[in-house]
Write a structure and sequence with these properties.
single chain, 145 residues, alpha/beta, Hypothetical Protein Ychn, Chain: A, 5-stranded parallel β-sheet, 41% helix, globular
Length: 145
Amino acid sequence: MKFASLLAAAAVTLYLATPAFAGDGNADAPEKVVYHVNDSANASAALQNINNHLAASPKAAIVVVTHGKGIDFLLEGAQDANGNPYDIRVQALKAKGVDFAVCNNTLKGRKIDPKTVLPEATIVPSGVAEIGKLQAQAGYVYLKP
């Protein structure tokens, strides 16, 4: 019985010492987060989540990656359900360092002129590939509002 207790205590100690639990030792390093938007019906909630995120963690590095119907809020003239333009909120977040990415595959597939994409957004070859790259190569965590 003592051996089992000792083994359990060692396992807990090892778990608490792992980087996933204890952090990387640099509490000042900003978290890196990719927000995935594939439906503009969720855009207002996503933008509010990002504002809340930045209020709690002003140094966070945030990228919003869009594809499919998720790109619609990043097109010229886009408005939310209440008729409020998205561009003002996008500009405000861009000024806080948030990056916005629009999927070129979606633009091509939906025959949307890239010139209609808000200037605050960058066109990337593939939205889903961009998410994968940010997660696998750049250490971003994934959030889907």
